[in-house]
Specification:
By secondary structure, this protein is an alpha/beta fold. The chain has a single domain, classed as Alpha-Beta Barrel (TIM Barrel), CATH 3.20.20. Helices cover 34% and strands 21% of the residues. It is built from nine helices and nine strands. Strands 3-1-2-4-5-6-7-8-9 form a nine-stranded mixed β-sheet. Strand 7, helix 7 and strand 8 form a beta-alpha-beta unit. It starts with a strand and ends with a strand. Bound molecules: iron/sulfur cluster.
Length: 240
Amino acid sequence: MARVHSIESCGLFDGPGVRMVVFLQGCQMRCRYCHNPDTWELPGGTVMQESDLVARARRFAPYIRRRGGVTVGGGEPLLQRHFLARYFRDLQAEGFHTALDTNGYAPDDALTRQVLASTNLVILDLKALPEDYPSVTGLSGVRTFGFLDLLTALDIPTWIRHVVVPGLTGSAATAAGLAQRLAGRRNIERVELLPYHRMGLAKYAQMGLQDPLPGTEPPDAAYLAAAAEPFRAAGLPLQP
Ligand code: SF4
């Protein structure tokens, strides 16, 4: 059983190829730039059986089995690890590629390793340098960077994402610190810098929440280029 926020049948951005993307409900972080505050609360969402979600993937199999797959994101999917372990195991048994889009806030225990044993790709959102995590996300960064180490130790193919928010993340110092922590990890297949946008603000208004970053605008080309430079200099596979 899973608590599902929504399902996208034809995703093109969350992993290779065409993908079914399942967004799970619930997140323990409160990133100040989050554009999906409606995924935060657990319980919430729609209760769905794992067998129904496997059947849903089968329905899209002509489009997603050969070159795409199934991505589970959120919210934070590792909050529902029992479901994920079974779902990814069963999807892989039917020939689907599995991707996990996560903030990495999970303990290194048997259940996390069980999930990862059936995960073809992890898309890990690194929000900030460890010491800046509390001010950006409300939580410590220790677990997320421990999760990054676990992915490297297990040699799990990983894409890194970092949202660039002027005045909060993506500064030259943050980018240099992240690049230094990522350099030399052979499991990192891709690094993506995503520009902050304000499209989620309507949800904050609907939910009666205040804009957590009033006056913050999306980064301009120069800010993005400066953020990219340390990753390039470190030889990391920056995309695009
Ligand atoms: S981890 Fe993702 S869903 Fe959770 S608060 Fe941060 S941006 Fe939002």
